[in-house]
């Protein structure tokens, strides 16, 4: 039986955070900031505010009618920042050009995605919070658009037209955001009252910008209502839709994620008997998966899918308990015919022997004691930062 394979994108297949990179590049290009780093910090400040609204404000006395009406959720940064694109007169064409500039994949990702689909005859679905335009652009000729579930966004729409006074209000707000600090939530911050005074003041300033000042601009409200990012709950629904489209049950789905917006889809598949793993995953979602994969090369995913197709979850558990390069090849040889095995072995040898890439680690999470889990979390975070840089800090 071949599983239906559903994966997040940013963190698994590409190292970038598209929204962060796009905003930073466009702000620099329009000379709103003096460096990419300054543009990235603006994104991080907005993203931190997004976390506060989604996790501490919505549904409480600190919310307002607009936040509740928008059904605000984690990941809605992608709903907020297109307002700046419109104020900067960015077109869909210019956005598409930026997508091509920033569109890089992890080593082994393009060949890996192709081999999952073609060599292993396994349907691959991308379930991502990213804008569809970015996902379509970077996956052209690799994954069909019909198998991509992302956030729809089109800038060239007359109802999003801003007058000059409205543009000025929006662009002036960037000057108010620049001196603020990024709000970073942790386990000790469970209520808005737990924010320190400085963070609380920054939150109030941001709330005034996005949900009071901007709410007075009709075109902004149109964008807020139309752009509905694929957050954690929506990703779970997308996995269900992909399974229904392929006419498979959820127990026949492999689901892979790396961050908080992947939590619901991982738990959905885990609870329904499918297979789940985190790919260089954030510590906050390790409880949602069966396995954790740490790797510098995406191609490691391909033999894991092949082994799952042949031996199921038990085969992966057996492999994880005796993980080594030789055992990976041994399990792979048992799972596919000689022609596919030889082709994949050449690729794997090239990566891990000739190129001397650090060999991946595949761990069955229920086997770990608290000390081993703590060690794994440290290694995961270090690898995320090595591979993704600034993007590793976002969700």
Secondary structure layout:
Elements: E1 4-7, H1 18-29, H2 36-57, H3 65-69, H4 77-80, H5 82-87, H6 92-102, H7 109-117, E2 124-131, H8 132-138, E3 148-151, H9 164-177, H10 197-213, H11 218-226, H12 232-246, E4 253-257, H13 263-271, E5 275-279, E6 291-294, H14 301-321, H15 325-335, H16 338-354, E7 361-364, H17 370-388
Task: Give descriptors for this structure.
Rossmann fold, 7-stranded mixed beta sheet, 7 strands, alpha/beta, 17 helices, AF1437-like domain fold, 395 residues, 2 domains
Notes on the protein architecture:
The chain is α/β, with parallel strands linked by helices. The chain has two domains: 4-12 and 107-150 and 231-388, HAD superfamily/HAD-like (Rossmann fold, 3-Layer(aba) Sandwich); 18-102 and 163-216, AF1437-like domain superfamily (AF1437-like domain fold), CATH 1.10.3870.10. It has helices at residues 18-29, 36-57, 65-69, 77-80, 82-87, 92-102, 109-117, 132-138, 164-177, 197-213, 218-226, 232-246, 263-271, 301-321, 325-335, 338-354, 370-388, and strands spanning 4-7, 124-131, 148-151, 253-257, 275-279, 291-294, 361-364. Helix 13 (263-271) links the parallel strand 4 (253-257) and strand 5. Helix 1 (18-29) packs across helix 2 (36-57). The mean pLDDT is 95.
Short description:
It contains 17 helices and seven strands. Helix 1 (18-29) packs across helix 6 (92-102). The chain has helices spanning 18-29, 36-57, 65-69, 77-80, 82-87, 92-102, 109-117, 132-138, 164-177, 197-213, 218-226, 232-246, 263-271, 301-321, 325-335, 338-354, 370-388, and strands at residues 4-7, 124-131, 148-151, 253-257, 275-279, 291-294, 361-364.
């Amino acid at each position: 039986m071949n599983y239906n394979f559903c994966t997040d994108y940013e963190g698994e297949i590409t190292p970038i955070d598209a929204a962060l990179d796009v905003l930073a590049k466009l702000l620099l290009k329009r000379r709103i900031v003096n460096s990419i780093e300054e543009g990235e910090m603006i994104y991080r400040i907005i993203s931190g505010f997004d976390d506060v609204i989604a996790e501490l404000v919505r549904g409480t006395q600190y919310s307002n009618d607009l936040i509740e009406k928008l059904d605000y959720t984690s990941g809605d940064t992608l709903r907020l920042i297109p307002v700046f694109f419109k104020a900067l007169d960015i077109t869909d064409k210019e956005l598409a050009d930026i997508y091509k500039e920033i569109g890089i994949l992890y080593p082994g990702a393009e060949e890996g995605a192709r081999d999952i689909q073609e060599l292993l005859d396994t349907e691959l679905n991308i379930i991502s919070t990213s804008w569809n335009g970015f996902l379509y652009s970077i996956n052209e000729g690799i994954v069909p658009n019909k198998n991509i579930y992302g956030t729809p966004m089109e800038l060239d729409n007359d109802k999003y037209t801003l007058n000059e006074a409205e543009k000025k209000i929006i662009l002036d707000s960037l000057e108010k955001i620049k001196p603020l600090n990024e709000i970073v939530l942790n386990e000790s911050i469970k209520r808005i009252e737990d924010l320190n005074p400085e963070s609380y003041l920054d939150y109030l300033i941001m709330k005034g910008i996005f949900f009071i000042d901007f709410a007075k601009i009709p075109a902004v409200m149109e964008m807020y209502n139309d752009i509905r990012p694929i957050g954690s709950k929506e990703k779970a629904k997308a996995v269900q839709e992909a399974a229904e489209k392929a006419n498979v049950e959820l127990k026949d789905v492999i689901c892979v994620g790396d961050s908080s917006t992947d939590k619901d889809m991982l738990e959905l598949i885990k609870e329904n008997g499918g297979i789940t793993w985190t790919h260089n995953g954030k510590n906050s979602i390790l409880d949602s998966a069966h396995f954790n994969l740490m790797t510098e090369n995406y191609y490691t995913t391909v033999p894991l899918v092949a082994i799952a197709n042949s031996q199921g979850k038990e085969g992966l558990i057996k492999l994880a308990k005796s993980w080594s390069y030789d055992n990976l090849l041994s399990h792979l040889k048992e799972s596919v015919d000689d022609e596919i095995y030889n082709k994949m072995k050449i690729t794997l040898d090239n990566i891990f022997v000739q190129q001397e890439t650090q060999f991946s680690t595949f761990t069955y999470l229920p086997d770990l004691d608290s000390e081993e889990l703590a060690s794994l979390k440290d290694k995961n975070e270090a690898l995320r930062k090595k591979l993704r840089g600034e993007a590793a800090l976002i969700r």
